[in-house]
Amino acid sequence: MFDADKWQEIFAALGASKVRTALTALGVFWGIFMLIVMMGAGKGLENGVKKDFSNFATNSLFMWTQRTTKPFKGFPPGRSFSITNEDIEPLRRAFPEIEALSARCQLGGYRGESNVFYGTKSGPYEVYGDYPEIIEIAPRKLLEGRWLNELDQREKRKVAVIGTRVRDVLFGQEAAIGKYIRVQGVYFMVIGVFDLFSSANNSEREVERVFIPTSSFQQSFNYGNSVGWLNIMTKDEHLISDIEPGILKFLAERHDVDPNDARAFGSWNAEKEFVRISNLFVGIRFLIWVVGIGTLMAGVIGVSNIMLVVVKERTREIGVRKAIGATPYAITSQIVLEAVMLTSIAGYLGLLGGVYLIEGLNYFLVSAGVDAGMFENPEVDFSLVIRGSLVLIFAGGLAGLLPARRAAQVDPVIALRSE
Fold first, then answer.
1. Which of 311, 379, 316 is nearest to 339 (CA)?
2. N or C: which end of the chain has fewer CB within 10 A?
3. Spatial separation of the C-alpha atoms in residues 233 and 56, rounded to whole Å
4. What mean pLDDT value characterizes the chain?
5. Residue 200: is its pLDDT beyond 60?
């Protein structure tokens, strides 16, 4: 049952010393405000990091050959070897879990660049030979024309799909489809222009790429049947980590490499990396909660100390209440409610301030088109607001518990004699 008199007394007690109440409330406000801001900023950082994974499948594996470090079958250590075209189809047959596979070559090796020409214009770009399936492993948004297809690969067609940055620099306002670009004296017809679905941390480099069929790449640039590295994606019901050891063993056997030579192959497992990043942010969220709750508890302790002072100052008042029949429960509930009210009002103001700051920052980033790099879409989860509310109520009750017990133990006779 709602007791208007009790709540009027609570607000009167809190307003009796406005400066002291405000300073005490500031500690609680700052604690919950910082918790919300840190959680929102942490989510923004998490979104930014995970955005980098949006431009390739998380159930994918990228692998390449290195030098051997162990002797095997008469071969000395330090031997170089390469994956070849002849490995591709046997690998597909040996591992039916594979959904897509692309054998990749790159001019100049990893992160190497080559000058690409169109008329009098040129620029240094990454030139790749890839299977058409690479678009399944690393999705691109096709803006013009088409992607590479199986016929391009089989007939070794001299065709190319270019990134938007390549198009803008080489062609400007001119249509790129059907025009010819030149790479190391070899002409390729542009059949498509692509962009990324989301602007990741390395998106500028991604759209400065040229893709041609692997078969045409090997023929045009005298690569023979060698492949730089493999890009592999499993079917949705399979984990790439489950078949990665088998793939490495399979290729080691085909190239007379010791299966236990851990340095003979290099690899990057997107699934493991995604799990590692996810676990990292679980730890970050836990740390943020520890710091935020610690800051909030500092404010709560301040509330408890102030309520102890209030109880001491109101000893005579409490004595009068008990003398005219007030029960210990009535005295205790009055003090606890005062503490809960002070904590809740200050906490909710901090909670609203934190939410408005995060949402305002997000609105500014979106409306102004600011590229925040690894910081993307900071947000506050509604469940976090609910948990914060429950923490506030609990903290308020905890803050008032000790002062309330002290008030309930006041002896009316002694209290009435106090000044």
1. 311
2. N
3. 10
4. 82
5. no
Q: Which tokens in the block code for residue 139?
A: 């999705």
Q: Which amino acid is at 222?
A: N
- Among candidate residues 165, 154, 160, 151, the one with its CA nearest the CA of residue 186: 160
What's the CA angle centered on 404, arms 401 and 409, to 5 degrees?
130
Question: Lowest-pLDDT range, 46-60, 254-268, 396-410?
Answer: 396-410
Q: What does the H/E/C string look like for 104-173?
A: EEECCCCCCCEEEEECCEEEEEEEEEECCCHHHHCCCEEEEECCCCHHHHHCCCCEEEEEHHHHHHHHCC
Residue 317, CB-side half-sphere exposure with 13 Å CA sphere: 11
CA-closest candidate to residue 255, choices 73, 61, 69? 73
- Report residue 133 CA to chain centroid gap: 27
Amino acid identity of residue 273, one-letter, is E
Residue 335: per-residue pLDDT: 73
Task: Provide the token pair at 45.
Answer: 């950082």
Longest dimension (CA), the chain: 106
- Phi and psi angles of residue 382, each rounded to the nearest 5 degrees, phi first: -60, -35
Tell me: the pLDDT tens digits for 159-192? 999 999 999 999 998 999 999 999 999 999 999 9
- Angle at CA 268, nearest 5°, toward 266 and 136? 125
Least confident of 85-94, 125-134, 360-369: 360-369
DSSP string for residues in 338-353? HHHHHHHHHHHHHHHH
The residue behind tokens 């222009």 is 193
The whole-angstrom separation of Cα 309 and Cα 262 is 68
Q: Give the span between the Cα atoms of 102 and 267, in whole angstroms.
A: 14
What's the burial of 347, exposed, middle or buried (CB within 10 Å: 0-12/13-18/19+)?
A: buried
3-state secondary structure of 259: coil
Instruction: Please return the burial class of 70, using the count of CB atoms within 10 Å of its CB with bins 0-12, 13-18 and 19+.
Output: middle
7 pLDDT higher than 70: no
Q: What's the pTM value of the predicted model, to 2 decimals?
A: 0.72
